[in-house]
Amino acid sequence: MLKELREIVQRVTASSDLDEAMSELVRKTRSAMQVDCCSIYLRRDLEQAYLLAATDGLALEAVGHAKIPLGEGIVGLIGEKEELINLADAQHHPKFKYLPEAHEDAFKSFLGAPIIHQRKTFGVLVVQQKEVRLFEEGEESFLVTLASQLATVIAHAEAKGNLKSPNWHGVLRGLAGSPGIAIGKAWVWRPRVELSQVTARKGDDPALQHARFDKVLVQVEEELDSMALRFKESQASESVAVFEVYQYILKDPVFIGLIREEIERGWIAGSAVKRVCEKQVAQFSTMSDPYLRERAADIRDLGQRLLTRLIHEDEGPLTPEEPIILVADEISATLIAEIPRGKLKGIVSAKGSINSHAAILARAMGIPAVMGIDHSFELLEDRTLIVDGYSGELLVEPIKSVLREYRRLMAEEAQMDELFATVRQERSQTLDGVSVSLLLNAGLSADTDIAMNDAADGVGLFRTEIPFMMRDRFPSELEQAANYRRVLTSYQGKPVCMRTLDVGGDKQLPYFPIVEENPFLGWRGIRLTLDHPEIFLVQLKAMLRASEGLDNLSVMLPMVGNLDEVRAARRLLDRAWREVSAETAAHQGTIRYPSLGVMIEVPSLLYQLPELAPLVDFWSVGTNDLTQYLLAVDRNNGRVADIYDAMHPAVLRALQQIIDAARRYAKPVSICGELAGDPVGVLVLMAMGYRRFSMNNSNIMRIKYVVRQSRTDELQKVLQEALSHQHTGAFKGVFGRYLEERGLGGLMRAGR
């Protein structure tokens, strides 16, 4: 029945109409299972009943009319128990409820499965037969599989159906991309040109195509320069680096060279851009690392910008008449930049995550954003929206009382922003005099405007892999050194911790492909670089060469799982330092031997801390991966993301174990995962004894304010109270109350 199952699933999921999909499912299921009847009952909360929504076998005139009250009948029992029921003779079951309008007198055997999506019961899928018999195990599995597929279809159809009603008001849920509240009318944007819409074709004059491409390159470069200048002159000056990414790609000889090669092969300029960009988009889109996966959006946006200029040379600026909520299938940083700041209230995107440049730029600019709202946006055009960037909720056509409450919360938020701004130049120190270091997580992205971030005490995590991924070869030692030198110089006198190359498995290089069944547990990070010392040595030497005379470099190893990896890496660092020192001695330069540390993200390292301590100079905890590995949860998988919890008791015990060992062995330790930028998380960590936190740029000011409003002696008492509770959410609740008592509840939700 596998072939039939696959066919039914494909037909149902491909259908654009729910009624059509359900009719197709009951008809195909009845045929595939060779039963006498198949029916779908949908739960209707307003009527407190299950409604017969589709059938092949019962009376068709009963569809849309026959109802079974919640909790009654075998259908109601399945919905209540949320489990499959298999009966040889249903009419003798005490819960059996006869539906005379459905004409089901002849049916005896009954098999029903709940239709559940994300813990919500949408209905019940039922098959029936005239003969008395129990359905077999394989038939049970078949029906459960179909019910799970139908649940997804119903969930999407329900949301779209709600939107089609002009009077509907309700909530759509996505991801919290940028904190804050925005109220306004939806302005739905669609690109004039999409990569997928362009038909690739060839021409007969490569010289003409090169000339067209050259002209467009200049135009787009000028646009990007103008955008960057606008942000430098505004309060969002820390966001300029997002445009440096586009300029980096646009000036990358490899990227441009690939397009020119396509032109030389006979493709017209637009087709050449399409072919190269689609290949790179496909490469980045398949990566499981969320930070890197979002770079696909940058390539797509730049490609569509080039194509728009090639096809529509008169493309003008976007100038909405009134302030708007920008709504689009995919929102890019350049799209945000094109809309005048005073006209942009909030952002809603179907695609993208908290790591997209749109979300990063929105956070830097203080624009509320919700990402991952997967619905038909044309139905939102010109409707009143509330964007709740704290909860990730989008409220459509809210009622007056809800509007009033959100406006009150917005007024309180404005007061809090003024508070945060007052501590920019102040020390990161608690009320009882304990100093805390607030460092920057950086890389080639909008959270990285190194030169302008004077509020940070240094760089706690510099990602080095992005330049490796934007080329068709490994970058040379001198190319890497130039990039690292810029970062180290910008933070002269402050520490900069550079993580060695963290690619492999899920972070594919186009020129170094790796195929694995489980990339999260595969050949990546230190495992790959130790297997290729020729790559590792070049990077280490580039880092050392870049640090000449600055003395602020430290090196960190990713994905370490055993001590032999640390010993091998130390030997290679020793060798790189000797070689670079010998070369720089010729011109009287000096290279300080850098501190060497490891990221604690693989759980096996938790049980080797005593042996690890003599081998390294510091530890840094990557709470994102450590949490995923400890809980066996991929937080980017929507089906299990709700059970990803950085404050799970197991994670907190691991963090306490690490800081206790750090004190015992006198090892500096920092936190560089997202927990460090979470107001409640940082209070928990401070109570445990952590004093170094590395985070995205957008979090530094509010965390500094939280630090300056806290006392470590009080936090330790709060920690003991939280430990006395047995339930999972105790830490969020108890430490959240600590924030509330200091008027900082708005750091967890809307309002103060």
TrEMBL record:
GO CC list: cytoplasm
Domain GAF: 17-164
Record's protein name: phosphoenolpyruvate--protein phosphotransferase
Family: Belongs to the PEP-utilizing enzyme family.
Keywords: Cytoplasm, Kinase, Magnesium, Metal-binding, Phosphotransferase system, Pyruvate, Sugar transport, Transferase, Transport
Cofactor requirement: Mg(2+)
Locations listed in the record: Cytoplasm
Organism per entry: Zobellella endophytica
Gene Ontology BP annotations: phosphoenolpyruvate-dependent sugar phosphotransferase system
EC number: 2.7.3.9
Catalytically driven reaction(s): L-histidyl-[protein] + phosphoenolpyruvate = N(pros)-phospho-L-histidyl-[protein] + pyruvate
SMART domains xref list: GAF
Top-level taxonomic group: Bacteria
